[in-house]
Design brief:
Length: 293
DNA sequence: CCCCAGGCACCTC
DNA sequence: GAGGTGCATGGG
């Protein structure tokens, strides 16, 4: 096992770890105290990730980011938490905007995640009409039941497309997925048969969004989530219920009669290139703050 | 009992 | 393409 620590200056140690991993972006991490989405962590609490090539755990302690694990853990850490993103430069692209500024001040240093495409796709198919805490529970259930054992550990990584393709709709309904069960199974089968969501990473943004909607259970909103949280399309702005409400109240000029048109308007409003970062700060702020706008 | 949750598939027109 | 409807499940 390797171990180390990263010094990160400014912006809440350069990585608001709890906000990044408990803001409904990734559903693949667990906590050593088992209290994900239930209670704040302490300096002893590890965030843990089992993946196909090993495991990684990380915690923020004494102003540093401590990590340990197997399977090139530092590289995985940098990749999954986008630690190479230059946050001050990203903030500088945002408009002068009181609500957006309040959202950044709420969790300065929060980062986007970079999840593997298949796991991200399934996670957000499950997100339809569902609270963040329950989406998390579904992904835990899928992993515990159909996941892959990480060699040398008792931890399980998110299931492969093949593993989920071999389930039945009834199997997945038994895990509480409800009407999302057939969507998950069919999309897993499509990926197992060779339709690769990663292809969208190299396409122009709007083409990429359209491409992802070929998967069952994936509409424009879920496609935007996968583009933003997995495929490096940082301009993607998922138009969920929270963001739609804020558009009505704060950016009424951006409201249009279709998803693509509203998307384009709000992406422009949020400065284009990193509009998805702005969306994610707003989402977390609106969803969890005691007194949002 | 009601309503709602990081929407989507399917059906009309 | 735009607009309505049904959909599983758990929590307030």
């Amino acid at each position: 096992m390797e171990a180390g620590a990263i010094e990160l200056d400014g912006l809440d140690g350069g990585c608001a770890l709890t906000a990044t991993l408990e803001s409904g972006q990734s559903y693949l991490w667990t906590r050593s105290d088992g209290l994900m989405y239930q209670a704040p962590p302490t300096e002893q609490t590890w965030y843990e990730l089992a993946h196909e090539a090993g495991f990684l755990r990380v915690r923020r302690r004494a102003g540093r980011l401590e990590w340990e694990g197997t399977g090139d853990p530092k590289r995985v850490l940098m990749d999954r938490l986008r630690l190479d993103d230059d946050l001050p430069s990203i903030y500088a692209e945002f408009p002068e905007d009181p609500m957006l500024q309040a959202a950044i001040n709420y969790v300065p240093g929060m980062r986007l995640v970079r999840d593997p495409p298949f796991a991200c796709l399934i996670s957000f198919i499950c997100s339809a009409q569902m609270r963040v805490e329950r989406i998390y529970g579904m992904q835990r259930a899928l992993t515990e039941t159909y996941g892959t054992i990480v060699p040398g550990t008792d931890a399980k990584a998110f299931p492969t497309p093949e593993a989920l393709a071999q389930t039945t709709e009834a199997d997945l309904r038994a895990l509480g997925l409800g009407y999302r069960a057939p969507y998950v199974r069919e999309t897993a089968a499509m990926v197992a048969d060779g339709t690769d969501p990663t292809t969208a990473a190299d396409m122009p943004y709007e083409d990429a969004r359209s491409y992802l909607t070929q998967f069952t259970g994936v509409g424009e909103k879920v496609a935007d989530c996968v583009l933003l949280f997995s495929l490096d399309h940082l301009e993607a702005v998922p138009l969920d219920t929270w963001i739609r409400k804020s558009i009505e109240r704060v950016y009424p000029a951006c409201a249009r009669d279709s998803y693509p048109a509203t998307s384009k308007a709000i992406r422009t409003q949020f400065g284009g290139t990193y509009a998805g970062y702005a969306q994610t700060y707003l989402f977390h702020y609106l969803r969890t703050s005691e007194d949002p706008w």
